[in-house]
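DNA-directed RNA polymerase
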Amino acid sequence: ILEKKDGLFRKHMMGKRVDYAARSVICPDMYINTNEIGIPMVFATKLTYPQPVTPWNVQELRQAVINGPSVHPGASMVINEDGSRTALSASNLTQREAVAKQLLTPAMGAPKPQGTKIVCRHVKNGDILLLNRQPTLHRPSIQAHRARILPEEKVLRLHYANCKAYNADFDGDEMNAHFPQSELGRAEAYVLACTDQQYLVPKVGLTLRRFHGHRQHNLAVQVRALASSWSQWVALGQGHVEQKVLASS
């Protein structure tokens, strides 16, 4: 039996095995936004969100149901109005097409259907995920990131600016990703726990994120490589300005 504590996060998220979660090694990626997390395709086809079917999103969800559990963006299950579940077969296209056509049709045999069908769709670009690196020492150890699906990757991709908050480096560190399963949880993650809203360390008020440290370092390296003297650096800058003027004219 796995031991668990009585705290909110330790009891429900960290003290036991949980659903809708992923764990992998983190690697640096400066080409994603600071509020994003790169998700490999193997996670994108396993993590799902229960999306209610409405006339406004039915076309998107129908295509997800037709794609099935193996093709991204797809879906793994449909929950009917009476609570019964229909698992989507990865090898039976006819079954998936039949289920997709009936997303707005009440389930047969239900006495008085309440609500709508729910499609358990795959995580997609822009969805919010809670990232955690253990040990969880302070509040910014759990922050919310927007998902960026990276089909060719096998690990989680993290921007350099978030390393200080998680006390993370890239020598084999692993992180956990949790996918909120309600609109209230998603709203709190988007607004309150988003990485772009975490500026200062709660304990002492020091700067939490280093926004442009890697950019300054890259600029210094480029200056040393391209301009060995101040006159060459000035000439390089003037040439760049002239190119911009010519391009704008």
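thats it. The radius of gyration is 23 Å. The chain has a mean pLDDT of 81. bye
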